[in-house]
């Protein structure tokens, strides 16, 4: 075995040269790998004993792509597209031997080889689009030539991987290897030599692109305009695959390079790449180490079979963990279990799960009206309505019922977890697990670490969150924790803006155009305007009271800030509400004025950032990027803008600070800048500098 670089070596197995890549953890195609591949291939070509080359990886996976950490830094030669063009020109057959994930540049390496073999568990994907990019090492040109433009478009624009069976069926790979990959790949290479099989250069294939239907490109563009609104990369992916059909291979590559670089230098990809690491960083809690012992959660109890409790129960059943659902009355329990089954049946009718799965999951959920039945569970999640006294009473009962060591969690969205924990003799076992609604769909979970929560309990909560496929963010105790506390800022400002002169449709348009799925008023209609409305004390003091007094509760009864046609969720104009807002604001003494879109955006977004800074100062969150993960997963922040803290850095903290000060002078201390923000600006730093 000869070391070519620290990451690549060349081994000879008779007439087969094995080019080994060893660059943990995922064999990313960093500089040492690219150089190793280029030099190793040259050496193999020069070596007369070697007649075929197998490209293969050590460790858990084939190359999972370019090294994302190198992006944004000055590129170092040799560049991947050049290395892969040399693969094309190689006079000896190259066989890519794949296990794990051949992703991005990894799959492009395989596409530039002359043959591809893989183990049955291997997966193949071009996920660049998820990083705001397109495959930039020939993937947009070779993939359509190999599997046809339509299948290539599906893979490239979605970024979703396919398995080995599908890859074989589509012609992406030549053979699935049963058993040992090294033996299988060497055997395949020997067979290629003995049969004198012609080397297949994907760049020279033309049959599949010649019969492409031109319409598919526009169909994809239209579909992506809907389902990937605001994202630049998916449309660029379509353009480059179209170029594979319309241009020569060389011209197509040049075009791909140009579009790749445009995306790479743009803010969307910077945001999405940042977010990729943010989502991995979030799992790192300074005082939780790899050695922290976690508990095995085999049985879960949930108190409350309402929308939240039912959704939470589904998460555990989906992961194969038995759940006991507790309700106060049999009828509530029956209703809750009925809703769960209905939700599963809907998933089955959409083909997402089988009817067998529905039965299996339902079997894992049992119901009871006796809290005592939770005596043997390992984790209890209380999901009753937001009433501190009720929650305290439940925790004090649970403390007597549950076995020693069982974790007691509350799903409260706002209340003081320390106060709840104090009701028990085991505050170290108490924490908050704040699921977001609908709990079986939303990926975000705030893990609320109370004053006395022990480290193993925290680590166990993080482990179980991973098991039920949530993105968990650890936060501290304060009113609304991190997400809702920041969200309250936008709510307050949007409500003030319509009194000062804007109307709901304008505010919603600005927020929607920024990239949120909907604006604050359409969202209020969706959630229900009556949420938190105190009917008995309502006295036309706020717009919420005005609307609720008129029976306008939002989508649920077809009338809110907007009007909804029967059976439709699309907000329609409600001129009567615009008139009501104008009259109400004038009665309150506002002199209405034209408000610019820019002001609306800054008024809604900058206070979120400012509150984030306060949260960081108070150590409620570990790092700024955790807040971004919360906003992307829980509040619909467009990932191509990274999250509020990333966005603030992009705008420039000095500008954010100036605008906040201006708003403070005009509108008061709701805009008072957080000391941390002032400090970062004075030190010339940004939030990114705190993302350790
Ligand atoms: C590309 O290829 C562009 C080309 O078309 C053109 C070039 C010219 N780079 O996810 P995990 C790290 S764009 C650097 O926790 P898993 C990751 O940060 C690239 N680092 O493991 C983590 O580090 P840490 C296209 C990377 O088993 C560790 O590896 N490719 C990269 O759950 C483990 O990762 C992609 O977008 C990378 N490319 O999942 C693939 N990938 O331990 C992105 C991972 O310090 N990667 N790391 O936190 C993935 O989808 C998953 O990581 C993978 C493994 C499925 C591979």
Give a topology summary.
Layout: E1 2-3, E2 8-13, E3 16-21, H1 31-46, E4 52-57, H2 80-89, E5 94-98, E6 101-103, H3 105-112, E7 115-119, E8 123-125, H4 139-147, H5 149-158, E9 162-163, H6 164-170, E10 175-177, H7 181-194, H8 207-210, H9 215-227, H10 233-246, H11 249-265, H12 267-281, E11 300-303, H13 307-318, E12 323-326, H14 330-349, H15 355-363, E13 365-368, E14 379-382, H16 388-401, E15 407-410, H17 417-421, E16 430-435, E17 444-449, H18 455-467, E18 471-476, H19 483-500, H20 504-514, H21 520-527, H22 543-549, H23 575-587, H24 597-617, H25 624-634, H26 644-651, H27 653-667, H28 675-682
Parallel strand pairs: 3-4, 4-5, 5-7, 6-8, 7-10, 11-12, 11-14, 12-13, 14-15, 15-16, 17-18
Antiparallel strand pairs: 1-2, 2-3, 8-9, 16-17
Helix pairs in contact: 1-2, 2-3, 3-4, 4-5, 4-10, 5-10, 9-10, 10-11, 12-25, 13-14, 14-15, 19-24, 20-24, 24-27
The protein binds (S)-3-Hydroxyhexanoyl-CoA.
What's the gist of this structure?
This protein is of the alpha/beta class and 692 residues long. The chain has 28 helices and 18 strands.
Rounded radius of gyration (Å): 29 Å
CA(first)-CA(last) distance = 39 Å
- CATH hierarchy: architecture of the largest domain: Alpha-Beta Complex
Secondary structure class reads alpha/beta
What share of the residues lie within helices?
A: 40-55%
The poorly predicted ranges are: none
The total domain count is: 3
Bound molecules: (S)-3-Hydroxyhexanoyl-CoA
Strand order of the largest sheet: 13-12-11-14-15-16-17-18
